[in-house]
Design a protein that fits this description.
The complex is a heterodimer of chains A (382) and B (89).
Chain A: H1 17-33, E1 38-42, H2 78-91, E2 95-99, H3 109-119, E3 122-127, H4 134-141, E4 146-153, H5 158-165, H6 170-183, E5 188-193, H7 202-211, E6 215-219, H8 239-247, E7 274-277, E8 282-284, E9 294-295, H9 301-307, H10 309-316, H11 338-345, H12 353-379
Parallel strand pairs in A: 1-2, 1-7, 2-3, 3-4, 4-5, 5-6
Antiparallel strand pairs in A: 7-8, 8-9
Chain B: E1 11-14, E2 17-22, E3 27-31, H1 33-41, H2 48-59, H3 63-79
Antiparallel strand pairs in B: 1-2, 2-3
Helix pairs in contact in B: 2-3
Classes of the chains: A alpha/beta (382), B alpha+beta (89).
């Protein structure tokens, strides 16, 4: 095992570097002891936007036709959510990411926040920001246990962003929401989702966030949807765009050098220090990997976490069980995104050719950079 | 005078260590076994005498040494803003 436990960006606490060292220590212990330190809880699939790339379901339809058990169960009630919060805390969860759909459209958000505060969770919200009206931002500021809000952004201009969300005015409302949180002293991370339609604005999006004193995260892996449809993948950035981005606006994110990926560092945090619960109670290794390990309506969370065959299987996988990844020379440059792999191949140990191509591009750019540095060094007098 | 921890702060005990997060200051604190035990006891209001008696009994240590440690820890928790209010009673 390396010095750092693998972390999913969506569940990483928003903390300064000094705090991250302590959090990293805790994450490492949780990973080694199989404690679900991080949990994502999807409060609803409702959303006020209709994003072209949404991984939940095709937003041009009425919603998913059926759930994991063949029927479409209702979303979790407040009582059910409060019960599972207690079970998660009992099992060792500290970092709780509340997500959607749009989390602020969840009817029980504030009662859930109240219960999470009583139980001592560190809460992060994942939102599109458009519903962060002044009163909402002020109310959120009253939660001492809110570590931050991660807001997805799709453009530096309203034309591009609103074209992706299919809702006019969403760009303006997203940035206004981020500004309101910032004014309330709440940590905000702008999550830049890179797509074909906005690749030319990635640098500008990051610049807008930085000018406001907001941190950023970048995600290039648009996945097929949890409802089995794959229209979302048509929104992915092209290879040419990604090469240009890694040479330019995302140059700081390409690995500096290839690091060694071995048996200990290959697995991600899924089913070890991380879990997720869908809006209908399905327990999953990650919110965007819809491989159902059980349902909290039928089984206590702790029992699912401890003995579900799905989780046992994930914990037992060796690198050799990932047939495309194990021999791949690009794996040190790869996100090894399990949600993309699962949704593309139907297997947790499968692969998504898009993710593979992104890794290849990262490798190419890093090698170009190393070659240029070598030439520069050779040419330097003395 | 009694002391209690700020009930809104996220915290977690793992093995012998306790982590406490203060999102307002963006600080993350790691407590050793003794400080973690004091944090645990402060879930409800306690006086210095209460804490000293409890810890002296649990750790089988001299009361004067324990009291000094309790007072030092409470001072640190107060300075960091991790206690509820200003103390009561």
């Amino acid at each position: 095992m390396g010095t750092e436990a693998p972390l999913c960006a969506d569940t990483a606490v928003i903390a300064p570097p000094s705090g991250l060292a302590i959090v990293g220590h805790l994450q490492r212990q949780a990973y080694l002891q199989t404690i679900p330190l991080n949990a994502s809880l999807e409060l609803t699939l409702r959303c006020n936007l209709r994003c072209l790339h949404c991984y939940n379901f095709d937003r041009d339809t009425d919603g998913p036709a059926c759930g994991s058990d063949g029927a479409l169960a209702p979303e979790l009630s407040l009582d059910e959510i409060c019960r599972v919060l207690g079970e998660l805390r009992e099992a060792g969860t500290l970092f709780l990411a509340l997500t959607g759909g749009e989390v602020l459209s969840a009817p029980h958000l504030f009662p859930v926040m109240d219960r999470a505060r009583e139980l001592g969770f560190a809460v992060q919200l994942l939102s599109n920001g458009t519903m962060l009206r002044p009163g909402v931002a002020a109310r959120l500021a009253g939660y001492r246990n809110l570590t931050g809000v991660s807001i997805s952004v799709y453009g530096a201009t309203p034309e591009v962003h609103d074209g992706i969300t299919q809702v006019r005015g969403s760009w303006r409302r997203t940035w206004a929401g981020a500004d309101r949180l910032r004014a309330q002293g709440i940590a905000v991370r702008m999550k830049v989702i890179v797509m074909r339609a906005n690749a030319h604005e990635v640098g500008a999006m990051r610049g807008m966030a930085e000018a406001r004193g907001l941190s950023t995260a970048v995600d290039v892996n648009i996945t097929a949807r949890n409802d089995g449809t794959s229209g979302s993948v048509a929104t992915r950035a092209t290879e040419e765009q990604l090469v240009e981005l890694y040479r330019g606006a995302l140059a700081d994110l390409a690995p500096k050098t290839g690091h060694v990926v071995d048996e200990a560092s290959f697995p991600c945090n899924c089913a070890r220090g991380n879990c997720a619960i869908s809006s209908r109670g399905d327990v999953q290794p990650c919110i965007s990997v819809p491989w159902v390990a059980g349902n909290i309506r039928r089984q206590p969370f702790a029992e699912i976490w401890r003995s579900s065959p799905v989780f046992q299987q994930i914990r037992g996988f060796k690198m050799a069980d990932y047939p495309k990844c194990a021999p791949c020379p690009d794996k040190a440059f790869c996100s090894r995104d399990r949600s993309a792999a699962y949704n593309a191949s139907g297997r947790y140990t499968g692969n998504d050719p898009f993710v593979c191509s992104v890794a290849g591009i990262a490798r190419k750019v890093v090698e170009e950079r190393a070659a240029a540095a070598a030439v520069s060094s050779t040419a330097c007098p003395g | 005078m009694t002391y209690a921890r700020d009930p809104g702060l996220p915290h977690q005990k793992l093995d012998e260590e306790t982590i406490v997060i203060d999102p307002r200051t963006r600080e993350v604190h790691l407590f050793n076994d003794t400080a973690g035990r004091i944090w645990e006891l402060l879930a409800s209001p306690r006086s210095v005498d209460d804490l000293t008696a409890a810890l002296a009994d649990e750790y089988e240590a001299p009361s004067d040494e324990v009291r000094a440690s309790v007072e030092e820890t409470l001072g640190w928790l107060r300075d960091k803003g991790l206690l509820a209010g200003r103390g009561a009673g």
